[in-house]
Amino acid sequence: MCAQAKTINMLLYSGGLQGVISVEDSSWNAGELYSAPRESVRELIETGACDRYGVYLLLSRDRVYVGQSSDLARRLTQHMAGKDWWTNAVVLTTKDDSLGHTDIDWLESELIERARFVGRLDCDNVQRGNPTKVDRFREVTLSQYLDEALFLMEFIGIPVFASKPSPRDRARTLADNARIDVTDTRNRLAFGKRAKGLAVEYLGEHGVEVTGSCNYAVLSESGSDFFINPTVTKLESDWSIVLNDTSRRMLLAFMVPANTLRLAEDGGVGLMRRADKPQYIDLHIDPVNLRDRRSRIDFSSYIVGRVTY
Fold first, then answer.
1. Are 238 and 213 within 8 A, CB to CB?
2. CA geometry: angle 133, 136, 140, nearest 5 deg
3. What is the DSSP letter of 264?
4. CA separation, residue 152 to residues 10, 14, 21, 101, 161 (Å)
5. Rounded distance, CA 39 to CA 170, Å?
6. Quick check: 176 and 123 in contact, CB under 8 A?
7. Taking Cα atoms as reference points, which of 29, 253, 12 lies closest to residue 149?
């Protein structure tokens, strides 16, 4: 039986293979793949492809970092500042933005496992991705999507998942993995969750004292927000906040003096309560400008320290 014929369309944004490339396949439904060298990531973002849900890969000659986001543009911009080893980026998305949260969780998890299997997974991928919750019918659809994406990556010269690495590359990867010590403070901070005490201690060791009542938050898996739900009583006393940006491997410490901020219902600009639990404040802090998305209050003025790890 003959294989089914297909057509592949490529758009070379710079007129050559050295810039942003968009690839579509006649059998891939609404799927889209974008590839760009690091120096062309800004141009990639300007195509609008990064405004959708999707999965992204950061690539070097022998390493790959796998991530996912509902705001790919923001995530790639963060990685431009936070990771310096990668030379190319690949974005997997859809023309109709038909991928949802559970879809990109599944795709990310599958790609992480494939990269781990061939020994090319970057050591910053310390987690296996979010738990996947797609049903068996959706999993079939996503498997077909992923198979086509892997085919197209190999077609444009990115065979990172297609074959096992050479013995030399494998030895290098094993050596890198051997250096990952889960008891090391910096690696434990990179896991993010359940590291509040460790983060406060690490800040103190680097000259940033965290005092008063403290809230701790880790950058969300999508890289879009820090979610914090302090009690409303925090506003009545000196209030410390520690944010762990695992993307940039940075701790940010804030101190909000007592009675500096207020709730929105008290008049004027103010913080918002949670609708379901009004005894808690609902904060969605943007990791780029450090504004609360709900109240638009700028928390950057309360920073007392930044420490990388």
1. yes
2. 110
3. G
4. 10, 20, 12, 23, 12
5. 28
6. yes
7. 29
Q: Is 39 helix (H, G, I), strand (E, B) or coil?
A: helix
What ranges make up the beta strands (E) of 154-301?
Answer: 213-218, 226-228, 239-245, 250-256, 283-285
3-state secondary structure (DSSP) of residue 103? helix
Mean pLDDT over all residues of the chain? 85
pLDDT tens by residue, 96-120: 999 999 999 999 988 988 888 777 7
Q: Which CATH architecture group holds 8-178?
A: 3-Layer(aba) Sandwich (3.40)
Residues of the chain with CATH 3.40.1440.10: 8-178
Q: Using only the alpha carbons of the chain, give its radius of gyration.
A: 22
The pLDDT value recorded for residue 190 is 79
Q: Is the pTM of this model over 0.90?
A: no
Collapsing DSSP to helix, strand or coil, 45 comes out as helix
DSSP 123-180: TT--S--SPP---HHHHHHHHHHHHHHHHHHHHTT--TTTSPPPHHHHHHHHHHHHT-
- CB atoms inside a 10 Å sphere around CB 150: 20
